[in-house]
Queue: 2 jobs
Job 1
Amino acid sequence: MSKIPVIIDTDPGIDDFLAIMLAKSSAKLDIRAITAVCGNQTLEKTSKNALDIANLLDINVAVAKGAQTPLDRELYTAGDVHGENGIGNIYLEASSKEFDNRYAWDLIYDEVKKENGNLEIIAIGPLTNIAIAVLKYPELVNMVKRLTIMGGSASSGNRTEHAEFNIWADPLAADIVFKSGFNMVMVGLDVTRKTLLSEENIEEIKAVKSEHIDIIGSLLDEMFKRYKKLGNPGVVIHDALAVAYVIDESCLELKNCQVSIESRDEIRIGKTIVDLEGKDKNVAVAFEVDFNLFKDLFEKMPLYYN
Ligand code: BDR
Ligand code: CA
């Protein structure tokens, strides 16, 4: 079976790091490029993390920098959740490789063009790079097989009462991408929240023998520490669920919906307005998750790195 070629657009990010590890561990995916965007931390930090993660995991593909600010909004990072360096203040060996000299959106376009409609994009940060790619190359939407994003919520948010972080961080970019015509899947809080890994699950994962188990354990511990402070009994690896879906579609149940983005109202800014009855259905939204399937995929991930 041929592998699915994917580009990962990301803002590492503790859960982004684990999502990239999951993607690399899968026999079904072939990572063709990694593009970095500002979000959980500044672009300087997220792009360095992306390059160092690729180096650590032996992902020998182009890593490119993208947007260093949202399209029409100040940059608000998430250092409270992801730490000062973006990956829980875990320090990786610095990669000796250089960044690709193209911008993220140009690299995305070049890679998509090579694949004749087979390439998929998994976007697990704010949608700024993808929006710029669409603005610069409108034909891109019909050249990408599928865009799977982690972001949004049909119910409440996590960054505000109304908005999920990735959409809230750049609502204008999200608005452009949601209106663009991509074959698009939204993996939002409605499903990621149902994948809480308990302290016991974390301990089980840490007991697996793996080359990178110390790093995996530290990432999970760092997340758990921060989640616990906020009153959560476990951790949610949001971004890993978007990757898990592309690996195995039976992870999620989707419904076609009309989704629009609140990009102006100050209080509701970044809200994904999900309408199941709307006649312009533009996005397949995930509402149910097979938690055991996801947990199994995630728990087996460290075994790959033996
Ligand atoms: C999303 O926000 C970020 O902090 C995470 O990396 C994830 O992509 C969850 O709302
Ligand atoms: Ca992310």
Note: The chain has one domain: 4-304.
Job 2
Amino acid sequence: MTTPAADLADPIAASAATLRATGRAPRIAVVLGSGWSGLTGWIEDAVEVPYAELPAFPRPTVGGHAARVVLGRIGPHEVVLLAGRKHAYEGGRADSMNGAIRTLAALGVQILVLTNAAGSLDPAVPPGGLMLITDHLNLPQLSPLWDERDDRRFVDMTDAYDPTLRARALAASARQGVALHEGVYAWVVGPQFETPAEIRMLRTLGARAVGMSTVPETIVARHAGLHVLGLSMVTNMAAGMATQTLSHAQTLRQAQAASERACAALAAIIQALQ
Ligand code: HPA
């Protein structure tokens, strides 16, 4: 397929054209956080495109995050998976995923599933547990929309995590016999982990999980008109709530251990989404 010359000047249009040239027309996209990359194993008829071929996509810098798009099917649905995200702690900006998410919208995606690894603030949700995000706390009060100029930037964040999709996810998990907890995700920039005092603060604010991603992506996705579902995999009890010291290596180890069960649950959820 040839890409129209005008599109080449626009990174989002050019990225969408490259993905469209694979012949796939996904309506569901998934951003794969730490521990969730095993979902690529559930894809049938997979086609891969490296982020390096997509000018609107980021160049992530973190170990454990690949950088490729995988298109294919899970059950009846065409899906597009984003393996690799760029975080606000890589340079201090909340808009690093804007181009990728706007490309998905341009491609015709309607549902965006955001996954992450998180610390738990609730002993009833131990490491290995899964939490459906019901709402979030944007603690840094950063926004991916600061370069927007028109009034559409005043995005309503009520029900940012789509209630209908959440109900379908809960029903699918119940059918699978998988415990899916629900709660508020608190976003911190990182990359340092929180202090025990910060975790006590977050608990009083009503957060059940804490992590360094997802929230900027939810905001730009809502601005782009996508419906969002958010899922956290708990990799550790948050700072001060257990005796272990926190590290990225420990996060990745626990994410790996919980990965197979979590990805099976997510595959079942995706099949139930539309
Ligand atoms: N805090 C912040 N981000 C995280 C954590 C945590 O405890 N675990 C995994 N990602």
Note: The chain is about 30% helix and 25% strand.
